[in-house]
Amino acid sequence: MRVxxxxxxxxxxxxxxxxxxxxxxxxxxxxxxxxxxxxYAEGFEPCLTADEAYTVGDSVEQVxxxxxxxxxxxHRADIAAAEGLLxxxxxxxxxxxxIVSGWLDRVLVPGVAYRLxxxxxxxxxxxxxxxxxxLNTSDTHEERERADLGDxxxxxxxxxxxxxxxxxxxxxxxxxPVVGSSDAQREQWLAEAEAICRAAFSDGR
Length: 205
Known about the structure:
The chain is α/β, with parallel strands linked by helices. Helix content is 42%, strand content 18%.
Protein backbone atom coordinates (compact mmCIF):
# COMPACT_ATOMS: atom_id res chain seq x y z
CA MET A 1 0.00 0.00 0.00
CA ARG A 2 1.18 3.52 -0.76
CA VAL A 3 0.93 5.39 2.56
CA UNK A 4 1.30 9.15 2.79
CA UNK A 5 2.84 10.13 6.14
CA UNK A 6 2.50 13.64 7.56
CA UNK A 7 4.21 14.86 10.74
CA UNK A 8 3.39 18.24 12.22
CA UNK A 9 5.58 19.11 15.19
CA UNK A 10 8.35 21.73 15.31
CA UNK A 11 10.79 19.71 17.46
CA UNK A 12 12.52 16.73 15.91
CA UNK A 13 13.09 15.38 19.44
CA UNK A 14 9.36 15.34 20.24
CA UNK A 15 7.39 12.22 21.06
CA UNK A 16 5.31 12.90 17.94
CA UNK A 17 8.44 12.43 15.85
CA UNK A 18 9.28 9.26 17.76
CA UNK A 19 5.80 7.89 17.03
CA UNK A 20 6.04 8.72 13.33
CA UNK A 21 9.52 7.23 12.99
CA UNK A 22 8.59 3.99 14.78
CA UNK A 23 5.41 3.48 12.77
CA UNK A 24 7.01 4.28 9.41
CA UNK A 25 9.79 1.79 10.05
CA UNK A 26 7.26 -0.92 10.92
CA UNK A 27 5.13 -0.21 7.86
CA UNK A 28 8.16 -0.27 5.58
CA UNK A 29 9.09 -3.60 7.11
CA UNK A 30 5.63 -4.89 6.19
CA UNK A 31 6.22 -3.93 2.56
CA UNK A 32 4.26 -0.68 2.40
CA UNK A 33 5.55 2.22 0.32
CA UNK A 34 5.91 5.30 2.55
CA UNK A 35 5.87 8.85 1.21
CA UNK A 36 6.82 11.04 4.14
CA UNK A 37 6.50 14.79 4.68
CA UNK A 38 7.79 16.64 7.75
CA UNK A 39 5.90 19.90 7.38
CA TYR A 40 8.20 21.98 9.57
CA ALA A 41 11.40 20.56 8.08
CA GLU A 42 10.10 21.26 4.58
CA GLY A 43 9.07 24.79 5.48
CA PHE A 44 5.53 24.14 4.31
CA GLU A 45 3.75 27.48 3.98
CA PRO A 46 0.37 27.11 5.76
CA CYS A 47 -1.30 30.30 4.52
CA LEU A 48 -3.66 29.97 1.59
CA THR A 49 -2.68 32.63 -0.95
CA ALA A 50 -5.02 34.98 -2.78
CA ASP A 51 -4.26 33.20 -6.07
CA GLU A 52 -5.21 29.84 -4.58
CA ALA A 53 -8.53 31.09 -3.20
CA TYR A 54 -11.76 30.91 -5.16
CA THR A 55 -13.04 33.97 -6.97
CA VAL A 56 -16.59 34.29 -8.28
CA GLY A 57 -16.72 32.76 -11.74
CA ASP A 58 -13.63 30.59 -11.31
CA SER A 59 -13.67 26.96 -12.31
CA VAL A 60 -11.89 24.31 -10.27
CA GLU A 61 -9.41 23.90 -13.12
CA GLN A 62 -8.61 27.63 -13.14
CA VAL A 63 -7.97 27.69 -9.39
CA UNK A 64 -5.77 24.59 -9.47
CA UNK A 65 -3.78 25.96 -12.39
CA UNK A 66 -2.88 29.12 -10.44
CA UNK A 67 -0.99 27.16 -7.77
CA UNK A 68 2.74 27.43 -8.52
CA UNK A 69 4.36 26.47 -5.21
CA UNK A 70 6.34 23.28 -6.03
CA UNK A 71 6.08 22.02 -2.43
CA UNK A 72 2.30 22.42 -2.51
CA UNK A 73 2.02 20.73 -5.90
CA UNK A 74 4.04 17.77 -4.64
CA HIS A 75 1.77 17.41 -1.60
CA ARG A 76 -1.34 17.53 -3.75
CA ALA A 77 0.05 14.89 -6.08
CA ASP A 78 1.05 12.69 -3.16
CA ILE A 79 -2.36 12.84 -1.46
CA ALA A 80 -4.08 12.10 -4.78
CA ALA A 81 -1.91 8.99 -5.28
CA ALA A 82 -2.12 7.74 -1.68
CA GLU A 83 -3.96 4.59 -0.65
CA GLY A 84 -3.37 5.14 3.07
CA LEU A 85 -2.82 8.19 5.26
CA LEU A 86 -0.83 8.52 8.48
CA UNK A 87 -0.92 11.86 10.33
CA UNK A 88 0.89 12.56 13.59
CA UNK A 89 0.47 15.82 15.49
CA UNK A 90 -0.09 17.16 19.02
CA UNK A 91 -3.35 18.48 20.43
CA UNK A 92 -2.87 22.23 20.78
CA UNK A 93 -5.93 24.09 22.09
CA UNK A 94 -8.18 21.31 20.81
CA UNK A 95 -6.88 21.64 17.26
CA UNK A 96 -3.90 20.66 15.13
CA UNK A 97 -0.88 22.99 14.97
CA UNK A 98 -1.34 25.86 12.51
CA ILE A 99 0.97 24.24 9.97
CA VAL A 100 -1.26 21.13 9.87
CA SER A 101 -4.42 23.23 9.61
CA GLY A 102 -2.80 25.13 6.75
CA TRP A 103 -1.91 21.84 5.08
CA LEU A 104 -5.60 20.94 5.15
CA ASP A 105 -6.55 24.35 3.72
CA ARG A 106 -4.06 24.24 0.84
CA VAL A 107 -3.85 20.54 -0.03
CA LEU A 108 -7.36 19.16 0.48
CA VAL A 109 -9.01 21.46 -2.05
CA PRO A 110 -11.77 20.96 -4.64
CA GLY A 111 -10.48 19.06 -7.62
CA VAL A 112 -7.90 17.27 -5.47
CA ALA A 113 -9.71 15.90 -2.41
CA TYR A 114 -13.38 16.40 -3.24
CA ARG A 115 -15.85 17.78 -5.76
CA LEU A 116 -18.85 19.92 -4.87
CA UNK A 117 -21.44 20.43 -7.59
CA UNK A 118 -23.28 23.17 -5.69
CA UNK A 119 -22.74 25.21 -2.54
CA UNK A 120 -25.59 23.43 -0.74
CA UNK A 121 -24.89 19.97 -2.13
CA UNK A 122 -23.08 16.97 -0.69
CA UNK A 123 -19.40 16.55 -1.51
CA UNK A 124 -18.07 13.75 -3.67
CA UNK A 125 -14.82 12.52 -2.18
CA UNK A 126 -12.01 12.12 -4.70
CA UNK A 127 -9.27 10.50 -2.62
CA UNK A 128 -8.44 6.81 -3.04
CA UNK A 129 -7.52 6.38 0.62
CA UNK A 130 -9.05 3.32 2.20
CA UNK A 131 -7.61 3.80 5.69
CA UNK A 132 -6.35 6.80 7.64
CA UNK A 133 -4.66 6.67 11.03
CA UNK A 134 -4.37 9.84 13.11
CA LEU A 135 -2.01 9.70 16.08
CA ASN A 136 -2.17 12.54 18.59
CA THR A 137 -0.33 13.48 21.75
CA SER A 138 -1.96 15.38 24.59
CA ASP A 139 -1.56 16.38 28.21
CA THR A 140 -5.32 16.38 28.86
CA HIS A 141 -6.76 13.28 30.52
CA GLU A 142 -9.31 11.38 28.44
CA GLU A 143 -12.19 11.86 30.91
CA ARG A 144 -11.89 15.65 30.82
CA GLU A 145 -11.29 15.68 27.07
CA ARG A 146 -14.59 13.96 26.41
CA ALA A 147 -16.74 15.32 29.25
CA ASP A 148 -15.65 18.96 29.24
CA LEU A 149 -14.21 19.56 25.78
CA GLY A 150 -16.10 17.12 23.52
CA ASP A 151 -12.98 15.69 21.87
CA UNK A 152 -12.67 18.43 19.19
CA UNK A 153 -9.92 16.63 17.26
CA UNK A 154 -12.25 13.69 16.61
CA UNK A 155 -14.83 16.14 15.29
CA UNK A 156 -12.25 17.70 12.98
CA UNK A 157 -10.74 14.51 11.59
CA UNK A 158 -13.55 12.00 12.00
CA UNK A 159 -16.51 14.12 10.94
CA UNK A 160 -15.31 17.16 9.03
CA UNK A 161 -12.21 16.19 7.06
CA UNK A 162 -11.81 12.50 6.26
CA UNK A 163 -15.40 11.54 5.28
CA UNK A 164 -15.69 14.72 3.20
CA UNK A 165 -12.73 13.60 1.08
CA UNK A 166 -13.89 10.03 0.54
CA UNK A 167 -11.65 8.27 3.10
CA UNK A 168 -13.46 5.02 3.78
CA UNK A 169 -12.30 4.31 7.34
CA UNK A 170 -10.14 5.90 9.98
CA UNK A 171 -8.68 5.21 13.37
CA UNK A 172 -7.53 7.91 15.76
CA UNK A 173 -5.56 7.28 18.91
CA UNK A 174 -4.32 9.69 21.57
CA UNK A 175 -1.27 9.10 23.77
CA UNK A 176 -1.61 10.94 27.08
CA PRO A 177 -0.59 12.56 29.27
CA VAL A 178 2.83 12.90 27.67
CA VAL A 179 4.17 15.41 30.17
CA GLY A 180 5.87 13.55 33.01
CA SER A 181 5.60 10.17 31.30
CA SER A 182 8.42 7.69 31.90
CA ASP A 183 10.70 6.12 29.32
CA ALA A 184 8.98 2.80 29.97
CA GLN A 185 5.55 4.33 29.35
CA ARG A 186 6.72 5.92 26.12
CA GLU A 187 8.17 2.66 24.89
CA GLN A 188 4.84 1.00 25.60
CA TRP A 189 3.06 3.73 23.62
CA LEU A 190 5.46 3.31 20.69
CA ALA A 191 4.75 -0.41 20.60
CA GLU A 192 1.02 0.31 20.78
CA ALA A 193 1.23 2.82 17.90
CA GLU A 194 3.12 0.28 15.81
CA ALA A 195 0.51 -2.40 16.45
CA ILE A 196 -2.38 -0.03 15.67
CA CYS A 197 -0.90 1.05 12.35
CA ARG A 198 0.28 -2.37 11.21
CA ALA A 199 -3.21 -3.76 11.81
CA ALA A 200 -5.02 -0.78 10.26
CA PHE A 201 -3.03 -0.71 7.05
CA SER A 202 -2.95 -4.50 6.75
CA ASP A 203 -6.75 -4.53 6.90
CA GLY A 204 -6.91 -1.74 4.33
CA ARG A 205 -4.87 -3.50 1.64
